[in-house]
Structure formats: C-alpha cells, structure tokens
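Slide 14.
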Amino acid sequence: MSVHGVEITLSEEVLGIILDIPCKVNRSVKGCKASIDYVQRATKFGDLKCTWVPKRFIKGEHQLYFEFVKMVLLPRTEKRIVASLTNLFVMEQLDTYEAINLSGIMLEHMHRIMTVKNGKHGITYKYL
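Slide 15: predicted structure.
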C-alpha cells in the first residue's frame, strides 16, 4: 500500500494496536469448554463431567447470558432449556469481556446446524 508515495505495510497485529482492538480473538467455539472456575461460579453444581447443564441449575445473571446466547448468538430449534459446553464457553467470554469473532462464530454455528438431519435443517436465525 502506498500513502503519498511512501510504501507501507500493515499487518493484523499493527492494525489491532492502532485501533486498540485485541488481536487474540476466539475465532471458533468448536471443541471449546468453559473453565471449571466459571462453571462453578455460574451453575449450582459446577463440574464439567456432563455435556450440558439444565437452565434451572444456572445462577441468576448467568441465566441472562444463557438467554442471550441461545436466542441471539447460537440459536437452535431443540433443547432450548439446556446449556451446552459451547454455550457455557461463550457465556464465559461475555462475562469476562473477552473478545470474540462474533460473525465467525455465528457463521460456524449456521454451517453446523444447516446440515440436514432427517430432511430438516436446524436453522433458527429469524432476522437474517
């Protein structure tokens, strides 16, 4: 790139520093799990031995995170009253103000649920 005849190069790291945007961003939630500390803080039993947590075992403000994740970020058609380990991971990222690649995570989720099962897809994004 040339600016007023001066050749410059900008990398993702340099742009992140200039714009004060973190470069280390979670680009995928595939296979990610919430930390044990967060699970203990957010749920009433706090272990990662199970693959999902019923909504009634999620504490107070963390239920609000769960509702936001299941209705806006990672919607699905089935099991809407349980939080998966992926949901808990995204909830932890929101709770700790960690940067996430929102569009990348939503596209990854859409790709995963658009695979047809029994002639039906699981896409539930209503406002695209």
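Speaker note: Residues 114 and 121 are 5 Å apart (CA to CA).
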